[in-house]
Amino acid sequence: MSRDRARVAVDIGGTFTDFVLEAGGRQYAHKVLTTPRAPERAVLDGLLPLLERAGVAAADVGTIVHGTTLATNAIIERKGARTAMLVTRGFRDAVEMAFENRFEQYDVFLDKPAPLVARALRLEVPERLDARGNVLVPLDETAVAERAASLAAAGIEALAVCFLHAYADPRHEQRVREIVARVAPGIAVSLSAEVSPEMREYERWSTTVANAYVQPVMSGYLGRLEAGLRAGGFECPLFLVTSGGGLTTVETARRLPVRLVESGPAGGAILAAKLARECGLDRVLSFDMGGTTAKICLIDDGEPAHSRTFEVARQYRFLKGSGLPLRIPVIEMVEIGAGGGSIAAVDALGRLAVGPESAGAEPGPACYARGGEAATVTDADVALGRIDPPRFAGGSIALVPDRAREALRRGVGAPLGLDAAQAALAVSEVVEENMANAARVHAVERGKELAGRTLIAFGGAAPLHAARLAAKLGIDRVLVPVSAGVGSAVGFLAAPVAYEVARSRYTRLDASFDAAAINAMFAAMRAEAEAVVRAGAPAAPLLETRTADMRYAGQGHEITVTLPAGAFDAGAPEDLVRRHAAAYLDTFGLTLGDLGVEAMNWTLRLAAAADDERTAPPAPPERAAPGGVARAVFDAAALREAPYAVHLRADLLPGHLVRGPALVAEPETTTLVPADRVVRVDAFGHLIVSPA
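The structure assignment produced for this chain is given below.
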């Protein structure tokens, strides 16, 4: 990617589409409402005013980096392609039986997630491989051709090919693709051996079906976006952000769109990790709150945790096991329906609930005056006086505070006997407690502490709620970065071109360990990853990271263990057993002695080396900031209106100190500073909110 030419990052969220343009050592931010019916429209229309403000021509842009929730929304809303599935004979119902467990043990009305492919479109094919890839039943090519013809006649757009043990040998699946290309060339084909070449058929097949389901949607969208960019004079490459925090090419994104499912939230985690390294923060809680959701991520030693398991479209809000499992590289975080557009309502028992339903961009919160009538978190912030309407979204959206107050009175105040301000405060408190509870559970599940961390807050709504959230979690320090309102888009610009490859290969870590075979497997994985990375970073140095999923012999689940660099030799098993013991001890607090260890899956991640990060300049001398304009804000602690000093972030320089209560306003967000807090501007220009 070109670093000396202008670069643009675009993040499509459920409510807003965010832009960041980096040119001439400066960053320019912009925010517009998302256009759900044609997402590319918001991208193309939003780029024009941004380029004009920066004085940059389309031809001067060297790179566009893009993240989108389109794949996620297609799965959640069941608006993907008409998809069919070819499976090994006898395994037609595997994706419906799933794990054969109850994720909610005592719910007699348990509602399990329905497969993305109906049973009538799950067709069996005579074929069978064993776990080592040996052919037990040859592929019936005549049956494949007949099924492909019938699917084409039925108007099928996408096909998931899911054969048993295809991870061990993909020959049958690859032959199916050749036959379908001949018989039904209009059907997009996804092979489980390429989408997720790992053992455990349910997760592998669920991931492959999801990939097939969104492939025509994403391919069409990316085609329209590329055509629009070319028509607008953009000649630069377009990169997509993956769920694992790397960049990939449009060609790879079209082939494996399931890897884009968490692309937007990944950008926020990348930003928080970069800030942690630059500012010397070893323990961080990343807090990204946009218009639709809030994302929380633990970052230790400058790196977020990574995983290869993820659930999408959960039936029971955020209950683990109630969604569709995906085996893709992801940054580990918790995401809850708590954004600016989250709808507040009182149920039949008189309980106030906020989210997960969202007003989105259409019709939006009541204060947008675009047809929305339900009270939302943004309406609460407007009614409390925390948002200055003329400055909201850089003035691009005209807010109507009276509509916000009326929606709160009608939807929350009347059922609970509260006035508009009290109702607004109740909404704010509930959504903050929801986020605090999610953070606590996320930390406990990973054996981590929250106390003593720094909360890094970004996204359009996060700085408004960060101080209160930090107080609930026992966190003293909040960092609000430059361009916080478009933080995920800023993170996109720091993402490296990267690709991850996984293989399943059962290996005992004892005298039977075949070092030559493992080395050959990693060489093939390296070649596959390098072909993708070099398409986006032809000359950059490459960084390789290798891991393996290991377990004590006989256990049902594995833990991820980091592998050493270089080729394996005869002494490798002893070293790998030691590494597994250390990782097991760190995870569970004990080891199980000499039970023998086995590796199930092997992973290689290849990334282009990023530019050197900035080193912090000397701390600036502290000085009082210029006085702000007074604004009446309903104070959560005093339970009444109080004068808050409003400061423009553009007027605050490194070293400036602002004492609460205050608001620090910028075009894309506002930072709330309570009366018991102060905010300092550090050497980078970030806001540091801490106890007075």
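Interim note for the steering committee: The mean pLDDT is 91. The two ends are 44 Å apart (CA to CA).
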